Amino acid sequence: HRHLFVLTGAGISTGSGIPAYRDENGDWKRPAPVQFRDFLRHHRVRQRYWARSLIGWPWFAQARPNLCHRTLASWEQLGRIETLVTQNVDRLHQAAGAKVVIDLHGRLDRIRCLDCDALIPRGPFQDVLRSRNPTFAELTAATGPDGDAYIDDIPFDEVDVPSCEACGGMLKPDVVFFGEIDGSTHHL
């Protein structure tokens, strides 16, 4: 058909070095990711999440579009793709030049306040995380999907989790977590 609707998932970004959550059989490759309810209810879960994200973000942010992303962007420019929907939060379709992209599960390059809905670019937020957690900022670890790192054998008790500068509210990446209904700010 000359007007395509395209849906992409993790497989398209593995060629850019971003690992998928599941293997070819659909089984988790590593422990299941953070659940939304746990992120909201437990400070320790937020400490764990932000420590892993602090370490994994620099690697994730340097990922570049691969041939698949570039091909889909060129098809859009030729008028072949009407809409591209992606489950990925990496923004690699946009980096390849695609303009009409629906980020179904959000985007990892910004942070959202769950109380006042303020949006913060990830770069400046990363600087705040790094300055408040210099010991963690120096660590390296194997990277995982969605910009995290596997450091579960390290205690997270000392991780200083920033709050929203505008209202003091809870911050989370602007993505739909596992167990989250729609990416909105519904508290459980």
Spatial strand order of the main sheet: 1-2-3
Oligomeric description of these chains: single chain
- Gap from first CA to last CA: 44 Å
Question: What percent of residues are in strands?
Answer: 15-25%
Question: What are the salient characteristics of this protein?
Answer:
three-stranded parallel sheet, three-stranded antiparallel sheet, single chain, 188 residues, alpha/beta, 7 helices
Structure description:
It contains 7 helices and 6 strands, in the order βααααβαβββααβ. It has a 3-stranded parallel sheet with strand order 1-2-3. It has a 3-stranded antiparallel sheet with strand order 5-4-6. The mean pLDDT is 90. The protein is 32% helix and 16% strand. The chain is α/β, with parallel strands linked by helices and 188 residues long. The chain is globular, with a radius of gyration of 17 Å.
